[in-house]
Amino acid sequence: MTTTWVAAFRSAVISPYERISYVRSRAFADQTVRQILHLDGGGEALRVRFSNRYGVRPLTVAAARVALRKSGSEIVAETDTGLRFGGAAETTIPVGGQVVSDPVGLAVGAGADLAVSLYLPEETGPATFSHQPQESAYVTRGDAVSDVALPGAEEVASRFYITGVDVRVPEGAAVAVAFGDSWFDGVGTTPGANRRSPNLLNRRLARGWVVNQGIAGNRLLTDEIGEHALARFERDVLQVPGVSHVLVHFGINDLGLPGIAGLPPATADDLVAGFTELARRSHEAGLRILAATIGPFAGSIYPGVDTPEGQRTRRVVNEWIRTGGVFDAVFDVAAAVQDPDRPDFIRPDLDSGDHTHLNDAGAQAMADSVDPATVRL
Fold first, then answer.
1. Could you give the maximum distance between any two Cα atoms of the chain, in Å?
2. DSSP secondary-structure letter at 374?
3. 18 falls in which pLDDT band (50, 70, 90)?
4. Helix boundaries (H) for the chain
5. Which residues form the SGNH hydrolase-type esterase domain (predicted)?
6. Same domain? 80 vs 184
7. 217 torsion bin: left (phi>0), alpha (psi -120 to 50), beta (else)
8. What is the chain's alpha carbon radius of gyration, rounded to the nearest angstrom?
9. CA nearest 121: which of 43, 231, 30?
10. 66 and 179 fall within a common domain
11. Bridge partners, 226 (sequence order)
């Protein structure tokens, strides 16, 4: 049987030098970082991807191991396997570079939790990272990559350097990419519970799976938290091995975040142009593109986010998404989660509490708004 590599997990990364005050990375030196990755798909072997895209100095990884996670920081000892890079146990990733581990013959299933442990012996500088992955990393002193558990380790709510896991599967397998903002990234859902909307959508698919390239705070048109969608589309969608579909949810941050700085929101014309360009690039690459309507965010607790102009624009753009015919399919998230009596607001039982993000039940409603027949993997 002919096999191929496809993405089983993805983690979109941002710069540690973002301007937004709550986006903070960290540096490491003589520390082990153990990170938990919830696999969207499985295969007979795996390889792990690492990035120093935004680093300002080379990143030395003196040792790296992968295992199935048992619970917390504890691994299933008999699955623990060393990662190698071109046959070597140590690797140095240049500034702006990335590295893919050699294949590991560890069979994994969809829904498995991997623990990837890195020993970082030298001062790293601020790390390339994912700032709100809704999963903990465990940080401890010294080289502890082979330890079964890390008692007393510091728990950190970010992910560092890891950008993905690929698995080897029979040829012909395909994946979809959830490409968007915090509504894919899972902000507002229970950390560690894997209740992000793409996780929940995966449970409804008869075959194939969706990997998550959401970035909380990401925008369609403007760099702010991460490069904007049009800038990162090539890397975070087209370069994903096995991709055949892309699901997009953007717009809330283009309409809401400018108000924090006292600036006007994006215009309807600009958002329509941006979405149209995403559709054009997807079709040019042979991908099917499914677009979400822009979710409600009225009453947001974040000052400046909810403005009358932004709400008007959201309604105009959503009508265009529903009727414009640019996309291969539309999933109407706005209709699925809005308060029937106040459609610009999230329904109270689906609201995380900040009136901007969905809770676990809201993420389920978002996943349920996608017709599985439109994700023919």
1. 61
2. G
3. confident
4. 182-185, 197-202, 229-233, 252-260, 268-284, 308-323, 333-337, 360-368
5. 178-365
6. no
7. left
8. 20
9. 30
10. no
11. 224
Instruction: Scan for tokens 């040019």, then name that residue.
Output: 284
Kindly list the distances between the CA atom of residue 164 and the CA atoms of 34, 48, 175, 326, 332, in Å, as whole numbers in the listed order. Answer: 15, 6, 14, 30, 29
The domain containing residue 238 runs over which residues?
A: 174-374
Boundary residue ending a domain (141, 165, 189): 165
Q: What angle is formed at CA 355 by the lines to CA 353 and CA 357, rounded to 5 degrees?
A: 80
CA gap 177, 163 in Å, rounded: 14
Summarize the confidence of residues 282-307 as an average pLDDT.
98
Q: What pTM, to 2 d.p., does this model score?
A: 0.96
Distance CA 195, CA 83 (A): 29
8 A C-beta contact, residue 357 and residue 301: no
User: In the sheet that 98-100 helps form, which strands lie side by side, from edge to edge?
Assistant: 3-10, 162-170, 46-51, 98-100
* Confidence class for position 19, pLDDT limits 50, 70, 90: confident
* Residue indicated by tokens 């108000």: 259
Tell me how long the chain is: 377
Residue that is written with structure tokens 């102009």 in the block: 309
Using CA atoms, how far residue 102 sits from 81, 106, 181, in Å, is 12, 12, 31
- 3-state DSSP assignment of residue 195: coil
Place of tokens 């007393």: 152
- The closest of 220, 302, 217, 223 to 260, measured between CA atoms, is 302
Token representation of residue 271: 């958002």
Mean pLDDT in residue range 213-217: 97
- Residue 315, SS3 per DSSP: helix
Strands of 94-253, DSSP E? 98-100, 113-120, 129-130, 137-141, 154-156, 159-160, 162-170, 175-180, 209-214, 243-249
Per-residue pLDDT, averaged over 194-199, amounts to 98
Q: Does the structure show a pLDDT above 90 at 113?
A: yes
- Please indicate, yes or no, whether residues 113 and 226 belong to a single structural domain of this protein: no
Measured CA to CA, the distance from residue 142 to residue 28 in angstroms comes to 11
Q: What is the mean pLDDT of the chain?
A: 97
